[in-house]
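User: Predict the complex with BJW.
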Amino acid sequence: MLRPMRESEQPLRQLADSVRDAGHIVVLTGAGISAESGLATFRDPQDGLWSAHRPEDLATPEAFARDPQMVWRWYEWRRARLRSVAPNPGHYALAELQQRVPSLTLITQNVDGLHQQAGSRDVIEFHGNITRTVCSNRSCPGQWHAGDQREPPHCPVCDAFLRPDVVWFGESIPVAAMQASLAALAACDVFMSIGTSSVVYPAAGMAQQAAANGAEIVEINPNATPLSSAADIVIPGPSGEVLPAVIKQLDLP
Ligand code: BJW
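Assistant: Here is the predicted structure with BJW placed in the model:
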C-alpha cells in the first residue's frame, strides 16, 4: 500500500519531477554544501569564518597589501582544515545527478575542490581554488616552489608575493568562469541554488538571470535568504540530507 505523502515531502516530489523533465540544469553551490564536511561557512554568526574577522580585513587585495602575512596565514590555516575533510553526501548526490540527467552545469563559489573530489565533472570555480597559488602580479606566470618557507612566499620570477588563487572583493571573476556560467544560465530550464546566502554578486544575480530566461528556480538551504521569496521551490533543509533524498525520489514511480 502506498504511504500518504507528508506535507514536507511535496517540494521534494516537485523537485524530482522538474529534474526528470529538465534538459539542462544549472546548480550554484556555496559554503553551506561543505558545512556537513566540517568546513565553516562565511557568515554563520557563531562559527562562520567571518564571525571573528571583518571580510575587508582578510578577503580583499587591500587587506593583502596591508598585512600579507596575516592574510597568508589565514589561508594556510584553511588549507590545513581542508586536508582533514572529505566530500559529504550532498557533494556525492550532485555528482550522481550529473550522471543521470542530459546536462548539468555545476558552478561553485567554493574554493575547496570537494565537488571534484566527489566526482563532479567540468566544475566552474567561480571564486577560484584555495589549493592553487599564483603571483600577486597577475600577469606573471610565477609558481610557488616548496622550498620557499616565507609567509607569504615570493614569486621565483618577479619576486612579488605569491597569493592564493581566489577572487577577493573588488576583483573580477575569471573570464572563462564568467563566460561559461552566462552560457549555461541562458540555456537552463532548472536553476538550483544550494547552500549559499545569495548576498555576494555577481553569483547572487544568477537566479534572476536564469528566471529571466524562463528557468524554474529552486533553493535548498536550512535558512531563508534574499532569494527564498522569489524561488519556485524552496526546500529548507541541509543539502547533505535533501540532495540524497532527491536522488532517492527520482527512483520512485
Ligand atoms: C547550508 C547548510 C547546509 C549552512 N546545507 N545550506 C552588485 C551589487 C552589490 C555589490 C556588488 C555588486 N557587484 C559586485 C559587488 C561587490 C561585491 C559584493 O557582492 N558585495 C556584496 C557583499 C554586497 N562583489 C565583488 O566584489 C565580486 N567581484 C566583482 O563583482 O567584480 C566586478 C568588479 C570588479 C571591480 C570593481 C567592481 C566590480 C567578487 C566577489 C568575491 C567573493 N569572494 C569570497 C572569498 C573567496 C575566497 C575565500 O574563500 O577566501 O567568496 S567572499 C565569500 O562569500 C566567498 C564565498 O564564495 C562568497 C559567498 O558566500 P556563501 O558561499 O554564500 O557563504 P555564506 O556563509 O554567506 O552562506 C552559507 C549559506 O549556507 C547560508 O545561507 C546557510 O544558511 C547555508 N547553510 N549549512 C545547505 N548543511
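Confidence is low (pLDDT under 50) at residues 1-5.
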